[in-house]
Amino acid sequence: MRHLVITIGCEYGAKGNAIGRKIAEDLNIKFYNRDLVDEIIEEVGIPKEIMEKVEEGGTIAGKGAEGDVRGSFSKYADLTDRAIHVQKQIIRKLAEKESCVIIGRSADYILKDTKDIDLLRAFIYAPDEVRIHNIMKSHNLSEKDAKILLLEKDKRYHKRHLALTGSNRGDRHNRDILMNSSYLGIEGTAEYLEELIRRKFGSEEE
After folding, report:
1. What pTM value is reported for the model?
2. Which among 81, 5, 83 has a CA at the least distance from the CA of 38?
3. Residue 4 and residue 156: Cα distance in Å, rounded?
């Protein structure tokens, strides 16, 4: 079996998670969404509040600055650096372990130089009015509240991507294909990407 990894970066409300899940199901490979990756990060000792600070663009000082050698963060005076390092290591290990789809978490950037895997890096976007409609439906929100949530998520994801990569979240150079999910819908977009995978890498069973 070929070792295939698909990373899907996506705008909030653009249905990237649903598209990635369908691809994983169709190809019978592992699926890691943001929540699953975050659970693994917590399991290895990075508290949720620290990752939230990273997402907000904050810097967290560690005890290592004062020579304290206790705890999992002792190597780092800046806990932000530690949190970013651990997330990158987890993404790389998930990709190296088996064929999978990874949603978000800057996996496209983290894996860009990875060897010995077939890698497709997609970014899913949609017009704001479509995203707002999707958020209203999925969260049972008014249009006003959906707009507020969209702006909050866009700002948060941009800061997290910047902290992890040093680059703008909209930078196309770390992606192989950008797709408007409203053009073909969830199933159509997933099928289009699956056909692209077949054309580029051949069958998963080869």
Report:
1. 0.83
2. 83
3. 29
